[in-house]
Amino acid sequence: EQAGEPAALVEYLTMCRKKVKEAHIDTSLIYAYAKAGMHSQLEEFISAPNVGRIQDVAERCYSEEMYVPAKIMFTSISNFARLATCLVRLGEFQAAVDA
Q1: Residue range 67-84: mean pLDDT, rounded
Q2: Distance CA 62, CA 87 (A)
Q3: Has residue 76 been placed in a domain?
Q4: What pLDDT score was predicted for residue 54?
Q5: Start-end of the CHCR repeats (predicted)?
Q6: Above 60 in pLDDT, residue 1?
Q7: What value does the mean pLDDT of the chain take?
Q8: How far apart are CA 55 and CA 3, in angstroms?
Q9: Does the residue 58 lie in any domain?
Q10: Does the reported pTM lie above 0.85?
């Protein structure tokens, strides 16, 4: 994570995940997808069975002002309060009211 190469980290963590299913690996992979801007892969990964801590990663993305991946994650876990704040930050006011 600290090396600043999220795409390389995604590749490495995907390889690790094939050998071991652990919450730490899945959580790091979710964050790496978000950091790399790989939103479609992020959606695909979190919609499939995994043991990652999606809420924790979503909060981290929100605090780092990565609102689009945070929006994707808050939507997937049905955290509508945090989803609404993301939508406001993204300027999607009508969607925020609906959430």
Answers
A1: 97
A2: 11
A3: yes
A4: 98
A5: 1-99
A6: no
A7: 94
A8: 24
A9: yes
A10: yes
